[in-house]
Amino acid sequence: MAALSTNSTRVNLSHAQDLLALPLAAGAVVYAGSLTAVATATGLAVRATDTAGLIVQGVAIEGFDNTGGSAGVVAANGSARFVRVDRAIFRFAYTGTAPKVGQACFVVNDNTVTVEATTNNILAGIIHRLDETGTVFVDQTTLRHQGA
């Protein structure tokens, strides 16, 4: 499935929110519903991709467009350049081999995961449940134990 190009409401299983406020990278656009990661080199948030040096943090619950903005700074109007991210069990599209419950899954893009090896094997979470719609529920609550 294609990466997100607009805000989206991501289906999740009922949970207590585990919200993080992550400073955005300069020029980054993160859509609501995007799988969101931080770059280990900078600690700044971006949409998740299969790019070396990213650690998934969860799903953006609000979109934020930092096009033309500086990295994680407070704008002239006083607004911070942060994206709010939640760690829970969220529904994602998947590609490749049919996943099995309990398998680790990796980032394809901010909307899609796979259980197959990728170039950089950026961990998205653990397959929690297969869905009848051809999607999977991915448990991201364990991400806090993965160096995130």
Q: Any overview of this molecule?
A:
The chain is mainly β and 148 residues long. It is built from no helices and twelve strands. It has strands at residues 19-23, 29-30, 35-39, 45-47, 54-60, 64-65, 82-86, 89-94, 104-109, 112-114, 123-130, 135-139. The strands form three sheets. Strands 1-7-5-3-4 form a five-stranded antiparallel sheet, with no helix packed on it. A five-stranded mixed barrel has the order 8-10-9-11-12. A hairpin with a 5-residue loop joins strand 3 (35-39) and strand 4 (45-47). The protein is globular. It starts with 18 loop residues before the first strand and ends in a 9-residue tail after the last strand. The model has no long low-confidence stretch (mean pLDDT 86).
Give the end-to-end Cα distance, rounded to a whole number of Å. 26 Å
Overall form: globular
| β-strand amount | 35-45%
Question: If you compute it from the alpha carbons, what radius of gyration comes out, rounded to the nearest whole angstrom?
Answer: 15 Å
Q: How many strand segments?
A: 12
Which range best describes the helical content: under 10%, 10-25%, 25-40%, 40-55%, 55-70% or over 70%? Answer: under 10%
* Major β-sheet strand ordering: 1-7-5-3-4
Derived structural class: mainly beta
Stretches with pLDDT under 50, minimum 5 residues: none
Mean pLDDT: 86
Largest sheet: 5 strands, antiparallel
Order of helices and strands: EEEEEEEEEEEE
Number of helices: 0
